[in-house]
Amino acid sequence: MSLTVEITGLERIAAMTDPALFVQALDLAIERSAEAIRDDTKRLPPVSAKTTGYETHGIPVDTGRMRQSIQKRKLALLAAGVFADTNYSGFVQEGTGPGCRGGTSSGGSLRSSAGVRRSSRS
Q1: b vs e for 37-56, b when ≥16 Cβ sit within 10 Å of the residue's Cβ?
Q2: 29, pLDDT greater than 80
Q3: Which of 26, 45, 51, 85 is 20 to 30 A from residue 75's alpha carbon, by CA?
Q4: 0.70 cut: is pTM over it?
């Protein structure tokens, strides 16, 4: 999953302030947004096939290992990501698994990223 924020007229806003300070403040806002996404994801109610079924809104939890591995990473200037770095988180994200119909045979990380794309449209 990827979240892109498009700010129209960003150049006009940046022209009203010191561009370096503006980019620094925007970069900090993106990092804090990624932290909020990470924290909100960790606070989702746990669901499992045994107790609630996976149709219930929440985060799949059996051992808690994947939930604890969710972290925020700085990807680049104006870009941050939220990752669950376990060998099976890719299966959870896609709703597949090695033994599932349509599943894949390799794992991967659950990944979500946030960034800003500049647009000069008015």
Answers
A1: bbeeeeeeeebeeeeeeeee
A2: yes
A3: 45
A4: no
